[in-house]
Amino acid sequence: MAAGVPRIDGLESLGNPLEDAKRAAAYRAVDENLKFDEHKIVGIGSGSTVVYVAERIGQYLHDSEYSELVSKFICIPTGFQSRNLILDNKLQLGSIEQYPRIDIAFDGADEVDEHLQLIKGGGACLFQEKLVSTSAKTFIIVADSRKKSPQYLGKNWRQGVPIEIVPSAYVRVKDDLLEQLHADKVDIRQGGSAKAGPVVTDNSNFIIDADFGEIKDPRALHTDIKLLVGVVETGLFIDNASKAYFGNSDGTVELVTK
Ligand SMILES: O=C[C@H](O)[C@H](O)[C@H](O)COP(=O)(O)O
Predict the structure, then answer these.
(1) Taking 80 as the threshold, does the pLDDT of residue 47 lie above it?
(2) What start-end ranges are recorded for coiled-coil regions in this protein (predicted)?
(3) Are residue 185 and residue 228 in the same domain, yes or no?
(4) Pair 49, 132 in one domain
(5) Which of 9, 105, 109, 215 has a Cα-to-Cα distance from 184 of 20 to 30 A?
(6) Is the pLDDT of residue 3 over 80?
(7) How many domains is the chain partitioned into structurally?
(8) Ligand 1: which residue has its CA nearest to atom 8?
């Protein structure tokens, strides 16, 4: 390990077991997958786990051995929060329009099954996340171990599949999800105490959370939802991730590969 980059095995606890787990997964994922002389365009996802991915890459920026290469990395965000993570860690920001081919992308997930199919969008960032992750040659998931599904998607993540929709279509999509696709429950995501009315995404759309119980065939469900008029994208990420790092609070990490 280069001087200036903290060793993973010597890290002090953050005083919060869940944060320790997220950091362990993210740091391991960066250390084992980011190839400094090969990867130039790096996707940075959204959520609370990927914060530690940006932090780790930022640590390499301050190390003399890697500094020059890392300062040339172009980081592609998946939304407003992600953009700020890139800037806060003094990394170089680029856009997907400028760099539509990404070498490697890192992101969190809400649930991951054994085939590395994912539910994402718990933080309402799914459309840009899917744009970035499907534009990446390699897509790596970082998560704490709660995100690992015992079998089918929908088992641990009970909030429903996040679906980004065009606002004017919300009644129609809601009806179609219930009547045509037999969702058990469909909610327009609300801002809660932070905002009266629905959550508005970084793309000025709404999010629907549609509960289908345990999802035995995520690809088929994704396709069916995607065909509804008004749907922009679903939070089912199919055959996209190649590795998932699941962190535990003791600093150990489980790696699942395809
Ligand atoms: O919309 C949000 C994203 O899909 C996040 O990557 C996902 O919700 C996981 O977030 P976290 O790392 O905070 O659990």
Answers:
(1) yes
(2) none
(3) yes
(4) yes
(5) 109
(6) no
(7) 2
(8) 122
Residues 189 and 76 in one domain: no
Rounded Cα–Cα distance for residues 174 and 183 (Å) = 9
Token pair listed for 59? 């640590």
Helices (H), the chain: 17-33, 50-61, 67-72, 80-88, 126-133, 170-179, 218-226
Say if residue 146 is in the same domain as residue 195: no
143 CA from centroid of ligand 1 (Å): 9
List % helix, strand, coil for the chain (3-state, nearest 5). 30, 25, 45
Backbone CA torsion sign across 171, 172, 174, 179: positive
The answer as to whether 89 is a domain residue is: yes
Find the 19 Cα to ligand 1 centroid distance in Å.
14
Q: Quick one: average pLDDT of 76-91?
A: 98
* Choice from 16, 23, 49 to test ligand 1 binding pocket (greatest atom count within 8 A of CB): 49
Q: How many angstroms is it from 31 CA to the middle of ligand 1?
A: 21
What confidence tens digit (pLDDT) does each residue in 125-171 have? 999 999 999 999 999 999 999 999 999 999 999 999 999 999 999 99
End-to-end CA distance of the chain: 27
Q: Same domain for 197 and 167?
A: yes
Would you say the CB of residue 110 lies under 6 angstroms from ligand 1? yes
Kindly state the average pLDDT of the residues 175-194: 97
The CATH number linked to 80 is 3.40.50.1360
| 212: containing domain | 161-235
Mean pLDDT for the stretch of residues 200-210: 98
Kindly name the residue from 19, 32, 114, 129 that is annotated as catalytic. Answer: 129
This prediction's pTM: 0.96
Q: How confident is the model at residue 2 (pLDDT cuts 50, 70, 90)?
A: low
